[in-house]
Amino acid sequence: MSEPVLLVENAGAVTTVTLNRPQAMNALSNELRAALLDAFQGISRDPTVRVVILTGAGERAFCAGLDLKELSGEGGARDRDSGRAVGAGGDLVSAIEGLDRPVIGAINGVAITGGFELALACDVLFASSNARFADTHARVGIMPGWGLSQKLSRLIGVYRAKELSLTGNFLDAEGAERWGLVNRVVAPDELLPACRALADDMLSCDPAMVSAYKGVIDAGFAATLAEGRALEVAANRAHAKTVTPEGISERRLRVMERGRSQRSI
Q: The whole model's pTM is what?
């Protein structure tokens, strides 16, 4: 019996989703894309899941992008409509981006093209020191359709984004951290423990507030500064109607207690 192409592991309120095609550098075959979309749609309906960790099996690759061997028909697995298959990740990326709970990307190896876009759909990125990022759309001859051409320039600046996207060159983990693409770089064996520790920190916050706050940040990121400020004000006013003095007092005590032992980032 063959291994499943996707592993989903639940540990309390944290779900770890692992791309499980290490022999193919976790490339996104039709089967894997469908399984990943189904998993995130299922998570969106499960209120017991509060944080998701997305990673790849093995140390070589987080995800090498679309399975070009499958698209090209090698091995008799040709897609009847390769163009449709190339663009079929939009729903998948939207399912990850649109999840109303944090998604931590644990980038354990290369994240190339579609794999790079999958990483950018996450809310926080921790990278192994083995991680490398590359946008090879221009080399492969495929126009991006999952957000990379727009998100990357907003994250690292337009000049750096053009350098990566118009050359197809790799950016290593240290460079990605220096450019602000990833939050942190750790040793390979520390990657998942670091992500789980971050998930625990997120779990210590009010779940409804985490969800609402993520929504405001994402909506503002896609808007102008003025529009984002207006979104924040509207969210603040709506939330203020639900706040009670008792609730503020309780949360204040929790924050004070945690501040005595909280480690710095």
A: 0.88
